[in-house]
Fold:
Amino acid sequence: MANAVRFPAEWESQSAILVAWPTADTDWAPRLGEVEDTYIKLVAAITRFQPAVVIVGDDDIEAYAEARLRSNRIDMSRVRFVTAPYDDTWLRDSGPITLRNDDRFTLLDFRFTGWGGKFEASADDQLVRTLDAHKVFAHASRDEIAFALEGGAIETDGAGTLLTTWECLHLRHPDATREELTAKLSGWLHQDRVLWLDHGQLEGDDTDAHIDTLARFAPNDAIVFQACDDASDSHYADLKAMAGEIAALRTSDGKPYRLFPLPWAQPILDNGRRLAASYANFLIINGAVLVPSYGDAADTRAAEVLAQAFPEREIVQVDCRPIIWQNGSLHCLTMQLPEGLLA
Structure:
């Protein structure tokens, strides 16, 4: 890229992973115990490799969360608590999208509208401002942008290419053309080009086809994507069409991407409702890739595919079956902070 300002790839060095503790004041309330257990496993996996910043609503929640983590032998020297109000815990979408310029950072503070007005989001919309005011970040300035965009809707290779879905961006901004959206995203995110997918939608996903449930970049011109090989499944035709779109994409050098299709989990139902069990919702951290597991036979195969796509990293499975009840998975819960950003 010619620009000094960059949108780092997720596999670049990180200072921490940002998460928010689930409470009875969030949508997790009916199943809070098992969700807390999943968060403990997530924080345990993260802190094996790097720090975790855990957002809590107040001192009582912090004391409770700290006690739960300590009782599970988490390395508390790698856990930092920050108090801030939040509506929900999907920090991929309400947390900061960070640009880097050498040792300086810009926190892009886009509007968060609760996925197009589906849910209350006033506190989440202020989260980046609040964290910045609490001096969580170092060497950073905040850039407030009056445009609805969620972190789960965009994926970058760190070298000037952005991957996203037309479904999500069009629903958020129905009056904008693809050319207009391409120009806006390229400008704000300092990208040379934007690749659009027109197919790919998972039942149980209320984000309107976030790219991080469908297809993700990996190092050395690779794309890992959620495939479906079950012709009897309702997703088969659309994900097959998406796979064709991905196969037709080219790198900035005009070459095909190296492709890593992920296996398909058997349907997981909750009171008759299909849940979005995507293996593409993995999280890249320093030295490891955390991959969702769902208690399915495909869990092992998904880990094997990611080991091929990320051969230099340890693959760690995290049980996310309790999480998909609320329509998201591992990547949706988290936001990485690039190396040097954490104060």
In short: The first helix runs from residue 32 to 47. The radius of gyration is 19 Å. The mean pLDDT is 97. Residues 14-338 form a domain with the L-arginine/glycine Amidinotransferase; Chain A fold (CATH 3.75.10.10).
